[in-house]
Design goal:
heterodimer; A: 375 residues; alpha/beta; 2 domains; 16 helices; 6 strands; 63% helix; B: 311 residues; Rossmann fold; Alpha-Beta Plaits; six-stranded mixed beta sheet; 11 helices; binds adenosine-5'-diphosphate; binds magnesium ion
């Protein structure tokens, strides 16, 4: 009950802070409008996917071979062409050299999939269809992107009725984000990250305001204060993000796909990450001004390399590495896959990563919080 | 019964000893004054009673229970008015009091009633929907008090509640302290304003350098001062006054002149009133009134510490 009261007061308190609200609501919306309109020509919404070429090798017995060949036939109607790898050809290398969009190895146990990083849309489409196919046969698809040594097993979770795999996945075959769609996702994921700023002030704000004194002298547990504050902050930031989403969807007509629950779940874990991070930082760095500066630098870099302001295409090497450090990249790319390829499996890695890192920062903050005299 | 009992309490900040082996007892129904100049250790003591600071030795009991082992009981029964305002400036007065009172387990109709009671008490009911950021300093101080009393604590500790406010708000606060006391609250009132403490407190502890250097009723404290007395002589005009000659009179320590009043500080044991009156008559200075001033706490403090209270 105390937790709830403290959360509520935090919520009310922040919602009346015009500066925070402008920043969390007006700023992303205005940015969407400006960037989404100004850069609309650099996005071609009607990308022609064209022919998709997949190379495959069969290491399987007859029983599975025949449905697979049925699948190949179906796929051809959707302009996805499967070609048996000639003897001696390194399929992965062929993909790497951009001769094919993907390479598939069919075994008894299932399908191993190597998609091209360069033609990721084409590869994703092929991957999605394969997932749906193997799902039907209760097989597993192993997916790797040009890195055979890092093969991850991904359970195909696209729920399809038998036989409809080709139809369902190819429905979105020529769907690609327009500029407004892109910036709707980019700005929303960016603002989710900026929750860290208000979070860094959660406990410290009480100290500066001196209201910490009243919280500490009250007959409540210190952890109730901590949890209440976090809960209030999470709730408020989530509401802000949903408002931004709704605005971009209904006013700008941005595409958020057909899995709003999953999209929200990813955004929620991102807010959780940002809040834990902000709180953790406020305990790592003691000086008020220092916290804010460092936080701003980290957030700006994450936004920049996460593609918040402009799309970074075909990045590889060091740039790709830096991009991958930004939580914005994780969230944005997963959301893109979910929205445009119905690929719900993309959610799992980003959700686990967000939650894992959140818990680390939270643990640190809790320990520091409990040790401290007062708040 | 002792509402508060402190034994050998000590607090150090590094090498600096802010509270030094202090002992004290406050009985039920008292308005107990903590008098001391800035830095004497008043707030530090209060912060330890409130559980905001850990002690470096000693014992604190609230209602005969050690606060270390009965912290919840202690907290339920204490209301603290912190020296620095502790309110949310952008939540209404009502929301402020309700939130803090809610932390003491009050709910529903009872909570609402107590919040209103507290707001009425400090005279802010008509401002309940306003934001403290639009309040005057005095109104903020009063809200600061309301937030501390809504849960009806047995012991209310006020840490300099009248710093920097207008005389009207100050009187309002002093009156409310008395009213709280009449309603059965024990009050600890901290101040470096001697007049306030002298006006409302039934017992006073004078603190200096982390120690209680004197304790008792006003009368007991003033009885400490027996070696000097103040004689104030009001005259028609001071033109013919020879200050030097007045100082020559046996026993006179010092004189100061404020308009037509000549304030003479003199040794108590020297009976020189005759000589002083003679001095004025012989110079044809008309005496309008003459009175001996009772010693006040300021002089007590001065005598005990050699410093003025507000230095
Ligand atoms: N957190 C602290 N760290 C170091 N010194 C402190 C701290 N709090 C108070 N002091 C010192 O302890 C002394 C007593 O302070 P305080 O209790 O606030 O005095 P008072 O309330 O009587 O004015 C002062 O000299 C003050 O500087
Ligand atoms: Mg003080």
């Amino acid at each position: 009950m105390n937790i709830f009261n403290i959360a509520l007061i935090e919520f009310k308190h922040t919602i009346r802070d015009v500066r925070t609200l402008v920043f969390m609501l007006a700023f992303p919306i205005v940015m969407m409008l400006i960037l989404g309109t100004a850069l609309s020509t650099t996005f071609d919404k009607n990308i022609k996917i064209g022919k998709i070429n997949v190379l495959y090798t069969e290491k399987t017995d007859i029983s599975f071979s025949s449905p697979f060949h049925g699948f190949i036939k179906e796929a051809k109607k959707q302009d996805i062409h499967f070609k048996k790898a000639p003897h001696g050809l390194d399929g992965k290398k062929a993909v790497k050299q951009n001769h094919y969009d993907a390479y598939v190895v069919v075994t008894d146990k299932g399908v191993q999939f190597y998609g091209s990083e360069r033609n990721s849309i084409q590869a994703s489409i092929a991957e999605g269809m394969l997932s749906a196919f193997t799902d039907k046969y209760n097989l597993i698809t192993e997916v790797a992107k040009e890195k055979p040594d890092q093969v991850q097993t991904v359970m195909a979770s696209v729920s399809t009725t038998p036989g409809s795999y080709v139809k369902e996945t190819s429905l979105n075959a020529d769907k690609a984000p327009g500029s407004m769609d892109y910036y709707a996702v980019a700005m929303t994921t960016m603002i989710a990250l900026y929750s860290a700023i208000s979070a860094s002030n959660l406990i410290r704000g009480e100290r500066i305001r001196n209201t910490a004194v009243r919280l500490v002298i009250a007959p409540i547990n210190k952890m109730e204060i901590f949890l209440g504050k976090i809960l209030g902050s999470l709730a408020l930031n989530l509401v802000c993000i949903m408002l931004v989403m709704a605005f971009s969807r209904f006013v700008f007509g941005a595409d958020w796909g057909v899995h709003p629950g999953m999209v929200l779940l990813i955004l929620f874990t991102e807010v959780f990450l940002a809040v834990s991070f902000g709180l953790g930082i406020s305990y790592i760095i003691k000086a008020d001004q220092g916290t804010r500066t460092i936080l701003m630098i980290i957030l700006q870099l994450s936004s920049f390399f996460g593609g918040a302001y402009f799309r970074i295409e075909n990045a590889d090497g060091i740039l790709r590495f830096i991009m991958n450090l930004s939580p914005l990249t994780w969230a944005r790319e997963a959301l893109t896959k979910i929205i445009y390829n119905n690929d719900l499996t993309a959610a799992l890695p980003v959700i686990s990563l967000n939650l894992g890192i959140s818990l680390l920062f939270l643990l640190f903050a809790v320990v520091a919080f409990r040790r401290r005299e007062g708040l | 019964m002792n509402v508060l009992e402190i034994k050998n309490l000590t607090k150090k900040f590094g090498d600096f000893i802010a509270v030094d082996n202090m002992s004290l007892a406050v009985q039920e129904g008292e308005i107990f004054g903590f008098l001391g100049s800035n830095g004497a250790g008043k707030s530090t003591t209060i912060n330890m009673i409130a559980g905001l600071l850990q002690t470096n030795g000693g014992e604190i009991k609230i209602l005969d229970k050690n606060i270390a082992s009965h912290s919840k009981l202690a907290k339920m029964n204490i209301g603290i008015v912190p020296q620095d305002l502790a309110i949310y400036e952008d939540m209404t007065a009502y929301e402020n009091v309700r939130f803090f009172a809610g932390l003491y387990g009050l709910r529903g109709a009872e909570l609402k009633e107590r919040v209103e009671e507290a707001l009425v008490f400090v005279g802010l009911l008509d401002k309940q929907k306003s934001l403290p950021k639009d309040f005057s300093g005095g109104m903020k101080r009063r809200l600061n008090i309301a937030c501390a009393i809504a849960h009806r604590p047995k012991l209310i500790i006020m840490d300099e509640p009248t710093v920097g406010i207008d005389p009207q708000s100050r009187n309002y606060i002093l009156t409310s302290v008395r009213k709280l006391n009449e309603m059965g609250c024990t009050v600890i009132y901290t101040s470096h304003y001697m007049e306030e403490v002298e006006e409302i407190c039934s017992r006073i502890a004078i603190m200096d350098h982390g120690k209680v250097i004197a304790e008792g009723t006003k009368e007991q404290l003033k009885a400490i001062i027996t070696d000097t007395r103040d004689i104030w002589v009001e005259v028609k005009n001071t033109e013919n006054l020879e200050e030097a000659a007045l100082k020559e009179i046996k026993g006179v320590n010092s004189i100061s002149i404020e308009e037509n009043v000549i304030k003479i500080n003199s040794q108590s044991e020297v009976n020189n009133l005759n000589h002083i009156i003679q001095f004025f008559i012989s110079r044809l200075i008309e005496i309008r009134s003459l009175q001996e001033q009772a010693p006040n706490l300021e002089t007590v403090f001065l005598t005990l510490t050699g410093r003025n209270l507000r230095d």
